[in-house]
Amino acid sequence: MSNVQPGQALGASYSFVEPLGSGAVGEVWRVRPHDPGADLAAKILREEHAQDAGLVERFVRERSVLLALRHPNIVAVRDLVVDGGRLAIVMDLVPGGSVREWLLEVGTLPPSQALELAAQMLDALAAAHAAGTTHRDIKPDNVLLAAPGDAAGNVRVSDFGIASVMSGQSRRTTEIMGTPAYMPPELTSRGEAGPAGDVYSAGIMLYELLSGRTPFAGSGTDFTIAFRHVSVMPPRIDVPGPLWDALAAMLHKDPTARPAAAEAATTLRALAAAHASLPALPPVVDPEHFEDLQRPATVLRGIQQADPEPTDAAATVGQLTSPEAPDLGTSARHTVFRQRRSDLPPPAAPPTEATENAGNRRRPSWLNAKSLGLLAAAVVLLAAVIAGSIALFGRTEPQAVPAPDATASWQGQATPSGLATARSVRYDAQAKQVHLEFTYSAQKAPLTGPFLEVLPAAPGTSGCPAVDFSQAQGERNQPSLTGISVECGWNLSGISIPARGQVTVQATLPLALSGDDALDQWLQQAAAATEQALADERVEGSAYPAQRLQDIVVQTPARTVSGTTLPVTLVPVWPAGPDVLSPLYASPATGKPSATLRSIAGGEAGVRFSDACSGAVAVSGDGLVVTALSVTPQCTLRASVGNFTDLASEPFGITTRQ
After folding, report:
1. Under the phi-then-psi rule, with left for phi > 0, alpha for psi from -120 to 50, and beta for the rest, what region is 142?
2. Which label site among 1, 53, 79, 629 has the fewest CB atoms less than 10 Å from its CB?
3. What is the pLDDT of residue 147?
4. What is the pLDDT of residue 638?
């Protein structure tokens, strides 16, 4: 590929020693610094990249960012060299080989090893995401090991520099960079890349560590494999339910539904401890077929062939249609394909002389034209008599009286997170409009949206009214994103309530109310529907946290060692129960706080730990990191998270090292 030779200089500071490998974007060489020091690795980009002015500009611009990207699980970039027509990224030399080489030897890893490896990889991604850098090409080839065949504390993610330099900082690109087997669906379908895409690729790699294959591998071109990420579901592998649920969350088609890298790392570590004894799975063979995503049915139009003999293709299309398919009306195009309705009666055959004679034989002799006329007159007279009786003696239902101008109000109880909601409403009878104000108040901690509000139609009518909001952004609640299925639900975002403060949101909607107390009834119905949707125990997930969070559980290991940092996990409790797979917070923390923590406590600023065992533990000055100090058989840690100020862990013990 290149004319590099051992002994040649790379810039003013290094010399080439030996080639280590090559990839899609360049060669990797061992290089030796001129100053005393350990050997390093240098990725030499292909010559055509060095001639790309935009790439070279990004190369220089990214230098400070990449040199500052430091984490124990990231291969550190030491230098970026521009040497004539040669571009090189100089980084630490990691001697243990790649995870790809390890997988080729062992096939699959035991779940505990696979989960620990993936958790370290996610730690690296979380640190990079916090620094504003995404990887975009996570795969076993780019994850290295400090020691061969050992993932315990030895995982190093490589090639962050390649992702940043080759793709720049744009979140959307006309060129798709990545490896098809590991590319997130949004990169294939929309050209979008971001932190959620890295989590997806990490999930693909975890799937491969457990099963020996990527979920969408199989026959076909690179495009076929990439498109499977968009169109089909990953085949289930034989792992325990909680492990599969965590993996499926990372592989969610919707990037907004995936956990952040830090949250996913915490979840995987908990699962690794819970499944430490599970053996490695035997390698899984490629599936013969994949399960398609459940999508709305598509109606096809085309010209119906005159030939009644169905071809194989026609039979296939026939399987996609249904006898209950709706009448499509006149097509906007000339070509029309519709399946004939099998439930319609066949067209009547034209009468023959035989059928006419048969009909005449069955008709009674008295049933002639004159008798039919008299019978029709009698029916009309009877109908007139009945109608007159109703007019004279019948009763009609009283017509509804339009509601007058009115006001009403509703005050709800504060949620455990400290959110109190008040609703006041005014009805304009002439304009047939309702003017509604939501007043949201916070107690001890700042709170942010989104918030759910249900605004139903007027009693006796159907459909959901259109609503105009001010002081907030309102959009329809989407059950596919929130998990909450409720008619006429609205998602209100852009709301930030300071501690011990309040915010008012206004809404206007058209309603034609009837009756003196109609406004109050409508307001009570709206409030009750909102409360019922938020308290639904069937709903899983973290949507609308300020309204739905019920409690927080402080989790610590049952036993720890003195002189070590105590891992602490804050588990949210929703109406459906505790969600250990999506923790609220984990200490010591890496990356950005979870969205739920930001919503109910303002982020890490709302978290504080404190000693409840007489000095057996020490808490850092910011209240976020706990260190075990002295031996004790029983210790308890207290915590405060936003409005949840009286939290305590289960007792745990502190021992000495053996």
Report:
1. alpha
2. 53
3. 84
4. 94
Active site residues: 137
Type of residue numbered 209: L
CA angle 7, 100, 236 (to 5 degrees): 165
Cα–Cα distance, 295 to 143 (Å, whole number): 36
Amino acid 334: pLDDT: 32
C-beta of residue 217 within 8 angstroms of C-beta of residue 232: no
Cβ distance 570 to 545 under 8 Å?
Answer: no
Residue 201: name the closest of 178, 230, 228 by CA: 178
533, containing H or E segment: helix 518-534
How many Å apart are CA 578 and CA 500, to the nearest integer?
Answer: 28
Mean pLDDT for all residues in the chain: 80
Distance CA 519, CA 521 (A): 5
Question: Which residue from 210, 249, 260, 88 is spatially nearest to 161, judged by alpha carbons?
Answer: 88
Q: Does domain 95-284 have CATH number 1.10.340.30?
A: no
- What is the reported pLDDT for 376? 62
Pick the CATH number of 1-51+77-93 from 3.90.79.10, 3.40.50.300, 3.30.470.20, 3.30.200.20: 3.30.200.20
Q: Mind listing the pLDDT tens digit for each residue in 330-387?
A: 333 333 333 333 343 444 444 444 444 444 444 455 555 555 566 666 666 666 656 5
Residue 445 neighbours by CB under 8 Å, 6+ apart: 417, 418, 499, 600, 601, 602, 606, 642, 643
Q: Where would I find the beta strands (DSSP E) of 405-547?
A: 406-411, 419-428, 433-442, 447-448, 451-454, 468-470, 473-476, 489-493, 496-497, 502-510
Cis, peptide link before residue 588, omega less than 30° from 0: yes
As averages over each run of 10 residues, the pLDDT of the chain (658 residues) reads 79 89 78 88 77 66 74 89 81 90 92 95 93 88 86 83 53 51 85 88 96 85 77 91 95 93 94 93 78 49 40 36 37 32 43 45 52 62 61 53 86 92 92 93 93 91 89 89 90 94 94 87 93 91 92 92 91 90 86 87 93 89 91 93 93 83
Quick check: do 1-51+77-93 and 406-540 share a fold? no
What is the identity of the amino acid at 333?
A: R
DSSP classification of residue 584: S
CATH for 406-540 is 2.60.40
- Give me the residue spans of the domains in the chain: 1-51+77-93, 95-284, 406-540, 549-655
Measured over the CA atoms of residue 7, residue 13, residue 19 and residue 20, the dihedral's sign is positive
